[in-house]
């Protein structure tokens, strides 16, 4: 059984350049603050506020680079706080039908998203080379075991294979907290 | 493998009669609103606000009957929101040393608890008869598997055997949300 890096993704938003313009000003370019484990991806300096009639959460991190769709990823705990019922969905799925809406507030403007809010399906990033070594294929579901006082085995972990991916499991904060993960840990991949 | 009821406990507080008096008025008696799965236990009509310098959460349910210690059970997600670092601990453990503090606000007064905030260790309530049938002993750690799109196997589920207990697994909201549980579900006990 292979050892894998397990990381926890806090609530965040992916934006189109058009929506970056609306929230941060025309022609604004996202400023990388720190790189993420997947090559080219970064946490931006920019943050937004997410708001519904039931709750508002500030300082929600924008992830870069810009994408060709705008998507908000929150945990189920946060969805309940917001009064939303987003689906658990592959965060690379570009079809945002039947997802929840939310208001996004930036320093220069706001968006009233009618859709785009999801709870991310737990997943593992794998490069093509790693996929061969580990005998994994894109779209497969595997298990990941976390040790510790809140030991858990996560099932239905979606395998995503891309040439430039780096081996890492991504959980949301409910999953990370349920497993007692602080920051990141090494888990066990069970195929 | 036995089937077991799995319930999710939202944040709540257990109070001494002395602290009920401080929060709700001298001689106040908790009013049962609905019974819980464990005989004699109830969700009370009374709620309190929990507050720290970082956040406040209203409408936190009081559970009855009163106990001889005051204890607040929250999820790790809520602990982070409050800026607290409570331990994951058996919620029947009366020793509250090294737990977190919090302000509790009621309609007639408030408490500045120096300790008593915990994250509950996942556990299963079992009657003496059920323990014999299922070959479980008090203090044992077992596994519980939840099916569904967010399927999970929880390890280190603490067995609690008492004559009047009713068979039920108790998770907190991080654990319940990580497993995609709405309300309660039937899980699989793995000994």
Structure write-up:
Two copies of one chain form a homodimer. Chain A has 191 residues and is mainly beta. Chain A has two domains: 11-120, no CATH class; 122-190, Barwin-like endoglucanases (Beta Barrel), CATH 2.40.40. Chain A is built from four helices and 14 strands. Chain A has helices at 17-24, 76-82, 128-134, 173-178, and strands at residues 2-9, 12-14, 32-35, 42-51, 56-64, 71-73, 88-89, 100-105, 110-120, 123-126, 141-146, 152-161, 168-172, 184-190. In chain A, the strands form two sheets. The first copy, chain A, has a six-stranded mixed barrel with strand order 1-13-10-12-11-14. The mean pLDDT of chain A is 96. At the A-B interface, helix 2, strand 12 and helix 4 of A face helix 2, strand 12 and helix 4 of B.
Q: Short summary of the structure?
A:
The structure is a homodimer. Chain A has helices at about 15-25, 75-80, 130-135, 175-180; strands at about 1-10, 10-15, 30-35, 40-50, 55-65, 70-75, 90, 100-105, 110-120, 125, 140-145, 150-160, 170, 185-190.
């Amino acid at each position: 059984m292979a050892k894998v890096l397990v990381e926890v993704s806090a609530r965040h938003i992916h934006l189109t350049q058009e929506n970056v313009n609306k929230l941060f000003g025309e022609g604004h370019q996202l400023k990388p603050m720190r790189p993420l484990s997947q090559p080219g991806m970064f946490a931006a300096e920019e943050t937004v506020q997410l708001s519904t009639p039931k709750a508002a959460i500030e300082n929600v991190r924008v992830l870069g680079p810009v994408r060709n769709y705008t998507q908000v990823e929150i945990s189920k705990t946060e969805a309940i706080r917001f009064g939303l019922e987003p689906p658990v969905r592959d965060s690379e799925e570009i079809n945002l039908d039947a997802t929840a809406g939310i208001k996004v507030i930036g320093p220069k403007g706001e968006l009233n998203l009618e859709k785009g809010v999801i709870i991310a399906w737990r997943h593992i990033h794998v490069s093509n080379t790693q996929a061969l070594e580990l005998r994994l294929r894109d779209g497969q579901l595997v298990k990941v075991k976390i040790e510790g006082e809140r030991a858990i085995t996560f099932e239905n972990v979606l395998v995503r294979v891309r040439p430039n991916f780096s081996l890492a499991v991504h959980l949301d904060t409910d999953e990370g907290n349920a497993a007692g993960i602080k920051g990141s840990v090494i888990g066990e991949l069970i195929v």
